[in-house]
Structures are given as structure tokens and as C-alpha cells.
Amino acid sequence: MNNAIQGNILTPSGWVHGELTFNQRIAAISGGGVDPALNQADYILPGFIDLHVHGGGGKDVMEGGDAVHTIAAVHAKHGTTSMLATTMTAPPEDIERALQGIGQAAAARGKGEARVLGAHLEGPFINGGKLGAQPPYARAATLADVNQLAALAPLRVITVAPEIAGHQQLVKQLSEAGMRVQVGHTLGSYDDGVAALQQGARSFTHLFNAMPGLHHRDPGMVGAALAHATYAELIPDLLHVHPGAIRTALRCIPNLYCVTDSTAATGMPDGEYMLGRQKVMKCLGGVRLPDGTLAGSTLTMDQALRNLVGLGLDLADASARVSTYAADYLGLSERGRLAPGAFADCVVLDRDLHLKAVYIEGEPL
């Protein structure tokens, strides 16, 4: 027997006021077109998809073991129905331990957890001169290095600094192997960024952060993204990126999508937490190293949606940027949209955009 929810449903062809029926997948959507501004029913949107998650609930992905299960459950409560558990720059043994935990979580979704689609390998193949909040274990990569790690967990996204010797060829090799390669934690130039896109890179890791900024005579990596990218991820916590810069990126990059870059401090009180091997402090709404460097965030995807709407995006556009575009980037046609045959990953929000219900592959939280 199918389950059913009613409200203003955001479908790929527009808003429908009616009923969505489902089990694990969506069976049908019935009803008529509606302007949701004129109808006071709840909003039903695709579940959120977060491609950059380091932690939550006091747990860090780098701990390995069952940490990812706890993290996936914390983010599910905020409407994230699918996610990539994200590693960071660290000694090889730490990364391998983290990937083993990610691999186990990806193989079997626990009750009440977001679907772990695999790993986002954010380090160690980055530029040691642009670590941001990552520890100093950056190194160059070979295809053999990446393949060894890919045996431990599905590597869906890998962040690379393209200016490192050998990395342009690596970008080409990884892209041809089906991995999504992102440019990030880089000191590369505009030309390095353009070349990486030509080799198959598809996105930029937390756009604006940990990369050379835009100058009119030296457009830098940000300039390469704004001029040429179709996809890029951005942290819309309003701390990492100024609202004006967010609006600039929205005008330039058609499928800009949002991530949380969340840490163990997400969903927790102010205090000290771990980010890999480093201690970070949650206070004043942010997460920082002792020297004040931003070190990830405590953002959740439901708040990301509200922040985007607060910047002036209409709800359908904001929804695409916390769900559909991330699914499209990974090539997942059965997620990130409410349509018959797609997984029943749905969020129900009230008129103030606060969560009322979350469904993950048909399971109600």
C-alpha cells in the first residue's frame, strides 16, 4: 500500500497542489498547477543533497568506525536525504581508516540516516600553501594512489590542486574513470583553472574559500570559475562568503549548488571539537582554529535553504541549489527531484520554511 502526503509539490515541471504517493520510490503525483504564494499549504520539496560533510553530532568522519552513521543521522534530521562523507588532508593511515568507515556506511543505510553515496576526498592532493583549516599533510597524487583509496569506499568526488606537478594529467585520468574532480585548496592561476576544466574537472570546492580571488588584472582561480564553470559548490552560512559574492556567483555559474562543509560541532553546543587531528572551537555561530581561521561550519541544509531565500532567491531556485543540481552533478537522475520513479526523498516545510517531516527512500523520520 502506498503512503501519501499532500501540499504544494515542487515537480520538475513546476508547482502542483495535490498528493504525492510513494513507497521506497515515488509512485505518482496528482493535482493541478498552483502558485504556492497564493496557496497556504505546506511545501513539499526534494530532499537535500550535501556533497561536503565532515561531521555532526560531536563525530568527525576522520574517526572512522561508526562515526559516519551518527553524522548521517544528525543531518537527516535537518532534511539531508543523501550526502558525501568528506575526508581531509591527513596521514595515509588516517585517510584509510576514514574511508573504511565511509565504505561500510555507504554499503548499508541505517534507520533514520541519510543515504551515504560515498566519499568526497578533499585531501591530501591539495596545495600545502593553501591548506585553509587542513593540517600540513598535503602531497602530490598519482592514479595508483587514488585507485588504492577507491578500493576502500566509492570515491564520488575528489578535490585536486591542478597546479601541482602531474595533477593536470591526473584530472584527465580521474575524469575518464568517472570520478567528479573539483579544483580546490589551490594557489593556481586563472590559466590553471581553465586548463583543469579542459582536462575534465567539473566543479570548484567551496568557491571563494582557499583559492586565489578575483582581480581585474589577475582573475585567479575564482575568475576561472566565474567565467567558465557550470558547477561549483559554495557554503552559504553567510560567514564563509559575503552575500554580495554569493549573488555574483549565482549570476555567473548556472548550476551553483550549496554544501554545508559541516563539522563535528554541528548540532552541538559551543565548545571544543576535533576536525581530523586538529582541535577547533565552536563559538559565535562559527567554527575556527585557535588562530581564528574558519574551520568548516555548523550549517545544516535546511538553514542553507532559508539563507538562500533570504538573499532573494525564489523557493524553486533555492531548492534546486540544495538538491537537484548536486544530483545532476553526480549523474543521479533518481534523486534530487520529485517525479514518478525517483526515490521518495522528500522534505515537508511549513510556510516559514521550517521542517515538518523528512522521508528518506520512503522512510519517515
From TrEMBL:
<keyword id="KW-0378">Hydrolase</keyword>
<dbReference type="InterPro" id="IPR006680">
    <property type="entry name" value="Amidohydro-rel"/>
</dbReference>
<feature type="domain" description="Amidohydrolase-related">
    <location>
        <begin position="43"/>
        <end position="362"/>
    </location>
</feature>
<dbReference type="InterPro" id="IPR032466">
    <property type="entry name" value="Metal_Hydrolase"/>
</dbReference>
<keyword id="KW-0119">Carbohydrate metabolism</keyword>
<keyword id="KW-0479">Metal-binding</keyword>
<dbReference type="Pfam" id="PF01979">
    <property type="entry name" value="Amidohydro_1"/>
</dbReference>
<comment type="similarity">
    <text>Belongs to the metallo-dependent hydrolases superfamily. NagA family.</text>
</comment>
<protein>
    <submittedName>
        <fullName>N-acetylglucosamine-6-phosphate deacetylase</fullName>
        <ecNumber>3.5.1.25</ecNumber>
    </submittedName>
</protein>
<dbReference type="InterPro" id="IPR011059">
    <property type="entry name" value="Metal-dep_hydrolase_composite"/>
</dbReference>
<dbReference type="InterPro" id="IPR003764">
    <property type="entry name" value="GlcNAc_6-P_deAcase"/>
</dbReference>
<dbReference type="GO" id="GO:0008448">
    <property type="term" value="F:N-acetylglucosamine-6-phosphate deacetylase activity"/>
</dbReference>
